[in-house]
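Example (one chain per record):
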Amino acid sequence: MSGGALSSVNDFVIRFANVNGSGSASANEMFARAVMRMGVPVSPRNIFPSNIQGLPTWYEVRVTEDGHLGARGGVDFMVAMNPQTFDKDVAMIEPGGYLLYDSTKPLPASKFREDINVIGVPLTAICNKEYTDPRQRQLFKNIIYLGVLSALLEMDATVIETLIGEQYKGKDKLIGPNVHALHLGRDWALANLKCPIGLRIRKADKVGDRIFIEGNAAAALGAVYGGATVCAWYPITPSSSLAEAFTRYCARLRVDKDTGEAKYAIIQAEDELASIGMVIGASWNGARAFTSTSGPGISLMQEFLGLAYFAEIPSVIFNVQRAGPSTGMPTRTQQCDLISCAYASHGDTKHVMLFPEDPHEAFRFGADAFDLAERLQTPIFVMLDLDIGMNHRLCAPLTWDDNRKFDRGKVMTRAELEAGTEFGRYLDVHGDGIPFRTYPGTHPTRGSFFTRGTSRDRYARYTEEGGPYVDNMQRLLRKFETAKNIVPRPLIANADKPTKYGVIYFGSTSPAMDEAIGLLEKRGHELDRMRIRAFPFHSSVNSFVADHDFVYVVEQNRDSQLRSLIVNECGVDPVRLVPILHYDGTPITARFIAGAIGDHLGRMKVKPMRVAS
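Predicted structure:
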């Protein structure tokens, strides 16, 4: 080692630089789980390419006893296993940080930095001496460097051994060799390196009852508990694992115990256009149905989404956002589909969107979306993104009230029709914009209607007259107004001291934003904050903006899409909304948010110099 050394217990960022397809993913995730088993919260993120193998991949683990789950920015310890990205990886290390690399082949001094601590371990040599099979050499190399880390960071090796046993349960012959590889690395490090280093992991009790789950899996489970029985989808990164998780959960939870009969239908359609069509058809027939997709899929679904909006057919769309436009960066995260979903389809359309911040809310909103879709008789978008969807996150346990009943909305029954209750499919009886509907086959002669995508009157009779068309479009607006008080309301947290500045944010930005507030307070800046959880916006959004001189709008896209929606829907002066934008495909960090807002607030405090006369 050389240079000064970072020193920290249970508070650092480690990044693994590997090659996709090398088998490193399981070892890297095992490291994160081992830290968590030691009672220390972690926030891991998988950064992977869009091909099958051969390109660089990174796995970053933030070790954070304070519980900060957003990306921090910077790397304190780099495990550099990819020669292609070595120079870039070394450049990312914080001054005083650590570099672990395979020293089997000597590297010139020019490949390193004087202000970091270099740890060379002859991983390839150790593997070549121990194993003859090329695939074994590659796979066990990952476990060997995990063993090295356990010694350097003073980790409890028995925790990792337990995880190995759990991972290979049912494949017992693999447990011993993996434990042996772990100790090959650990023993070599204890014999040849100064252990531990300045960065250490010490047992704590900070995880509590929180669970470790991916957002896509949580959303899929929410769909099961929300009553979904139909999923039609087409594979697309990063949403495919949501449909796959729903398939696994249904196989356990949607099968008749007595007959073994499946009580669900999952269809992999030929494309996204077909998948949303199937969802609309199933929903029209009374099933709770959904699709999972990403931005390019939303583009293909536009016309069918307009049909569902205009014909008022419940449906749920899980949009796991990625970087666009076009193919964009399929395996990078953004919050860039707000405008395309809010106004999806041609003509005047407005759709409901939900913005979960973590897997816990992905589960909750995933279930709630089906009640909302049927209550409002309209498509509901659950707006996830790759950062939430495809990364494991610590979150509150998922809970469910077994006494909860599904809200099917305004459905006219056979008995009501028999009693002579007036039925008009698009008749606004209560003034809330939501009409009654009937399920197919409710009554042999009453309550039937023709579902069409063309204009019609209140009784679903075809017409091209302007009056009935305007009447229908205004009713749809009333329904959208009704939705403002039904969807999840924004959450507001006031600063400790009165302030004339505020910040609005949403979704996966939340954990970084929460941490950034603390960083800003250290710089003397106080901000009230509002987390948007749904569109359309509740009236409290207007009030929040009105109560502050400036409001920062933090989002992960180029064009300030949330800010644009607020301006457009709330009639807010855009000058009062200051955009804070991050859109390079990596998760937004607390450092970025605090730096951008802090610099802007700092500039506003600088008084201009008086011009000499």
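Caption: The first helix runs from residue 24 to 37.
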